[in-house]
């Protein structure tokens, strides 16, 4: 979730269409509009073509899942895919962990087109709330989502909600864009140190980086104290 609309001129460059619609006012409205225009591809950096979707996802799975696998205990029962979008990773997380996986997103359209799986359920987040009980989740997977939460108050609410649903000792696996460049209207380029210290009850370590279209993607992981 990297490229962001910043006005009608940029929209023309991205879509090839001269049609211009009013600028979305909130992150949710922006993602709803982006989902309508680009479907499953909307969760990628739009510098990737639709034909590249599978190869990009495959690269990310091959890069990230071995790191996640090393952290699993084998006793995981519930995994949260936070900001699951169109479910690019959600069924694969169920296969990797042998657990039940709940994909949560703010855009119903993306949840509706997400792939089905016998151990996967998709739920809509409303008003920033994660629809799961306190301390019910063994693993939280977040792939390039927090950078798309631009308002500080909304980000802090998400952080509190993620800490709320994660069990003590539960694992957080976080991937975010930490490239140094100016923020966009619907994306914040936050630092490695910011994410390392973002969760009061979850000390995160910076594990590794990879690059997507030249931008640094950083991998963090840690367990709730």
Question: Mind explaining what this structure looks like?
Answer:
The protein is of the alpha/beta class and 225 residues long. It folds into 2 domains: 44 residues, no CATH class; 171 residues, Rossmann fold. The chain has 7 helices and 7 strands, in the order αααβαβαββαβαββ. Strands 3-2-1-4-5-7-6 form a 7-stranded mixed sheet. The longest helix has 19 residues. The N terminus is likely disordered.
Descriptive key words:
alpha/beta, Rossmann fold, seven-stranded mixed sheet, 7 helices, 2 domains, 225 residues, 7 strands, disordered N terminus
What is the compact description of this entry?
The protein is α/β, with parallel strands linked by helices.
Termini, distance in Å?
Answer: 29 Å
The total domain count is 2
CATH level 4 superfamily of the largest domain:
Vaccinia Virus protein VP39
* Strand numbers in spatial order across the main sheet: 3-2-1-4-5-7-6
Shape label: globular
Structural class: alpha/beta
CATH topology of the largest domain: Rossmann fold
Estimate the strand proportion: 15-25%
CATH class identity of the largest domain = Alpha Beta
């Amino acid at each position: 979730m990297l490229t962001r609309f910043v006005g009608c001129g940029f929209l023309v460059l991205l879509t090839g269409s001269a049609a211009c619609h009013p600028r979305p006012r909130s992150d949710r409205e922006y993602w709803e509009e982006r989902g309508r225009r680009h479907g499953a591809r909307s969760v990628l950096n739009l510098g990737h073509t639709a034909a590249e979707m599978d190869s990009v996802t495959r690269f990310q799975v091959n890069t990230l899942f071995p790191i996640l696998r090393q952290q699993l205990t084998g006793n995981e029962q519930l995994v949260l895919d936070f900001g699951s979008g169109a479910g690019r990773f959600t069924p694969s997380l169920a296969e990797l962990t042998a657990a039940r996986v709940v994909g949560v997103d703010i855009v119903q359209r993306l949840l509706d087109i997400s792939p089905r799986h016998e151990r996967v359920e998709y739920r809509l987040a409303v008003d920033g709330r994660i629809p799961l009980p306190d301390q019910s989740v063994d693993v939280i997977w977040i792939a390039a989502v927090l950078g798309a939460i631009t308002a500080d108050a909304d980000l802090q609410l998400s952080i509190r909600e993620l800490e709320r649903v994660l069990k003590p000792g539960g694992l957080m696996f976080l991937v975010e864009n930490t490239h140094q460049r100016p923020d966009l209207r619907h994306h914040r380029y936050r630092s490695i140190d910011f994410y390392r210290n973002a969760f009061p009850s979850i000390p995160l370590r910076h594990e590794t980086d990879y690059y997507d279209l030249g931008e640094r993607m950083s991998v963090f992981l840690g367990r709730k104290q």
